[in-house]
Amino acid sequence: MRISIFGSGYVGLVQAAVFCEVRHQVTCIDIDAARIERIQGQVIPTPEFEDIKKRLITPVIIDGRNLYAPADMEAAGIEYFGIGRGRSVTHT
User: Fold this and answer.
1) Which of 58, 74, 77, 80 is the most buried (most CB within 10 A)?
2) Which whole number is the average pLDDT over 65-83?
3) How many CB atoms lie under 10 A from the CB of residue 77?
4) Does residue 71 contact residue 88 with C-beta atoms inside 8 Å?
5) How far apart are CA 62 and CA 18, in angstroms?
6) pTM of this structure
7) Are strands 25-29 and 2-6 parallel, antiparallel or unpaired?
8) Which secondary-structure segment (H or E) carries 11?
9) Mean pLDDT over residues 32-48, rounded?
10) Res. 73: pLDDT tops 50
11) How many Cα atoms occupy the beta-carbon half-sphere of 80 within 13 Å?
12) Is the pLDDT assigned to residue 87 strictly greater than 70?
């Protein structure tokens, strides 16, 4: 199947990767030409966890793809759940 994804930020790019993983032909479209160039150069953006932490009421990330190391999330002060991995930070 041929799929177009409009917006290649954290959500669009991950969705594109999921579709590619199951053998679909995916085209990402974004208004930021520099972002597309970075992706084509295999420079994949990573979230700024400090910014994310400031915006969340409770800093928790549930990661279904297990993209991040639990120790890194713990060091950033974020409660992290990697699906199939369990908790990285235990709160009492």
Assistant:
1) 80
2) 82
3) 11
4) yes
5) 17
6) 0.46
7) parallel
8) helix 10-21
9) 79
10) yes
11) 21
12) no
Pair of tokens at residue 31:
């208004």
pLDDT of residue 27: 92
Please indicate whether residue 46 or residue 15 has the higher confidence score (pLDDT): 15
How far CA 91 is from CA of 42, 45, 56, 63, in Å, comes to 37, 30, 17, 18
DSSP assignment of 27-56: EEE-S-HHHHHHHHTT------HHHHHHH-
d(CA 19, CA 16): 5
Q: What is the pLDDT of residue 24?
A: 93
Strand pairing report for 79-82 and 86-87: antiparallel
Confidence of residue 4 (pLDDT cuts 50, 70, 90): very high
Question: How far, in Å, CA of 39 to CA of 72, rounded?
Answer: 24
Of 17, 18, 72, 81, the C-alpha closest to 50 is: 72
